[in-house]
Amino acid sequence: MKKHGFEFSKSLGQNFLINPSVCPRIAEQGNAKQGFGIIEIGTGIGVLTAELAKRAEKVVAIEIDKRLIPILEDTLSDFDNVKIINADVMDIDLSKIIEENFKDLDVAVCANLPYYITSPVIMKLLESRLRIKSVTVMVQKEAGRRLCAEMGTRDMGAVTVAVNYFSEPKILFGVSRGSFMPSPNVDSCVVRFDIKEETPKGVEDERFFFNVARGAFSQRRKTLANSVSSSMGIKKSIVSEAIVKSGLNSNIRPEQLSMEELINFSNILKNISNL
Ligand code: SAM
C-alpha cells in the first residue's frame, strides 16, 4: 500500500484483513476447491483473493475502487486463474458473469463484505436465483446474528425470512476487530448460506410474500396486525381477519411466526385484501 501511495476510503468500507489465519479459513469453509469457480466481492489488496485462487479453479473478483487495480496486479501476479472486474457489485449482472466464466464449474460466492451494503448485497445474491451453491461472507457480529436467526426467535428480521427462504444459514466463526486494518469499532463473524435446491412450497405470490415480510418487521415490537396494517396501508380489520383465519393468536408479534405460518398468513391476506 505504501509503495502505491494508497489510503483507506472509509466510505467504501475498507477495513482490510491483516490476521493471516482468517482468509484460509474463509476459503476452506467457503467451497474454494477443485470443480468450483468463486465470485469474490471487494478484493482490497487481494489477501482473500490469493487464498481463493490457491484452492479454486477460477476466481472472478469484483472491486469498485480503481486505485486498487494496480496493487492487485502486483499482489496477484503469481496467479493465472484470477480475473478482476473494476465495478460496483450492485450494478453488475452476476448471472452473465457466471455463464461467461464458470460454464462447467459449480459456483460459490466468498467475500469480506463492505459493511455499508451487507444486506443489499446478500439480498441481491439470494433473490437473483443465481446458479450458486453457497455464499460465505464476513459481516458485523450483530448482522450475523440477525441473518442466521431461526424463524420464531427474537433476533429475527425481514432479512432472516429471505435468508431462510432461499438458504440454510450458519455462523461459522467469530473474527475480532483487531484482525482488520484499520480496526473497526465492532467484532465480526463469518457466515455461510447454503443455497436450497428448492424454496419452501405453498407461496402463492412471492412478491406479495416478501412485501408482507418487510411490512411485518418494519416496526419492531409491534403486533403483526399493527405493523402490517400501517406499513402496507391495509385496513387493520382486514389484517386481523387474516390473522384469525390463519389460526394465529390475534396479538401475535412478527418475530413469533414460523416460515409456514408466515406463508399461510400472506396467502390468506392476499386473498381477502384483493391486492
Ligand atoms: N477482501 C479484502 C480483505 O479482506 O482485506 C477487502 C475487504 S473490505 C471490508 C471491502 C472491499 O469492498 C473494499 O476493497 C472496497 O473497496 C470494496 N467495495 C466497497 N463497495 C463495493 C461495491 N459496491 N462493489 C464492489 N466492491 C466494493
Query: How many runs of DSSP E, i.e. beta strands?
Result: 9
Uncertain segments: none
Distance between the termini: 55 Å
Report the helical percentage. 25-40%
CATH topology of the largest domain: Rossmann fold
Rg, rounded, reads 21 Å
Order of helices and strands: EHEHEHEHEHEHHEEEHHHH
What is the molecular shape? elongated
Q: What strand line-up does the widest sheet have? A: 4-3-2-5-6-9-7
Highlighted features:
275 residues; Helicase, Ruva Protein, domain 3; 11 helices; 7-stranded mixed beta sheet; 2 domains; binds S-adenosylmethionine; alpha/beta; two-stranded antiparallel sheet; Rossmann fold; elongated
Can you tell me about this structure?
The chain has 275 residues and is of the alpha/beta class. It folds into two domains: 16-195, Rossmann fold (3-Layer(aba) Sandwich), CATH 3.40.50; 206-273, Helicase, Ruva Protein, domain 3, CATH 1.10.8.100. It has helices at residues 22-29, 47-55, 69-75, 94-101, 118-127, 141-147, 158-166, 206-216, 224-232, 236-245, 259-273, and strands at residues 16-17, 36-41, 58-63, 82-86, 106-112, 134-140, 167-175, 180-181, 188-195. The longest helix has 15 residues, at 259-273. It starts with 15 loop residues before the first strand and ends with a helix. The structure holds S-adenosylmethionine. S-adenosylmethionine binds at residues 12-17, 41-44, 47-48, 62-65, 88-90, 112, 114, 117.
